[in-house]
């Protein structure tokens, strides 16, 4: 798709650190970019721009639907990431992104009082 082509072009033209950071941002694992809660979404504004909208309150019987919707969205995002990284395996970007994810995981699991 054209969106995928634009992303591939950006990842190819960017330095490695920027490309990995962009992937982390798209995957919602970048520390400096806060993410929206699952009950919010972004939609086009009526006079241009964008607006954040809070979904209607979910009833108790809608909890399963909300969970399914959230997991489906995460699964779709992961599938898109895998497709994006598998197109050019020779670049090494997938390996660098994997190492970045390991570093993030390590820093999240180490208690704050422990110094490296």
Automatic annotation (TrEMBL):
TANGO6 HEAT repeat domain: residues covered: 1-86
Pfam families from the UniProt entry: ARM_TANGO6
UniProt-listed InterPro entries: HEAT_TANGO6 (IPR057407), TANGO6/Rtp1 (IPR039600)
GO biological process: protein secretion
Ranges in coiled-coil conformation: none
Listed PANTHER family: TRANSPORT AND GOLGI ORGANIZATION PROTEIN 6 FAMILY MEMBER, TRANSPORT AND GOLGI ORGANIZATION PROTEIN 6 HOMOLOG
Name the record gives this protein: TANGO6 HEAT repeat domain-containing protein
Organism: Engystomops pustulosus (Tungara frog)
């Amino acid at each position: 798709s054209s969106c995928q082509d634009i992303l591939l072009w950006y990842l190819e033209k960017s330095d490695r650190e920027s490309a990995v950071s962009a992937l982390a941002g798209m995957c919602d694992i970048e520390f400096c970019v806060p993410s929206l809660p699952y009950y919010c979404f972004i939609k086009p504004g009526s006079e241009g721009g964008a607006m954040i909208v809070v979904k209607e309150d979910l009833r108790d019987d809608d909890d399963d639907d909300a969970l399914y919707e959230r997991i489906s969205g995460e699964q779709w995002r992961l599938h898109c990431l895998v497709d994006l990284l598998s197109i050019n395996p020779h670049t090494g970007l997938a390996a660098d992104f994997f190492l970045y994810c390991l570093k993030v995981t390590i820093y999240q699991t180490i208690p704050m009082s422990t110094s490296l």
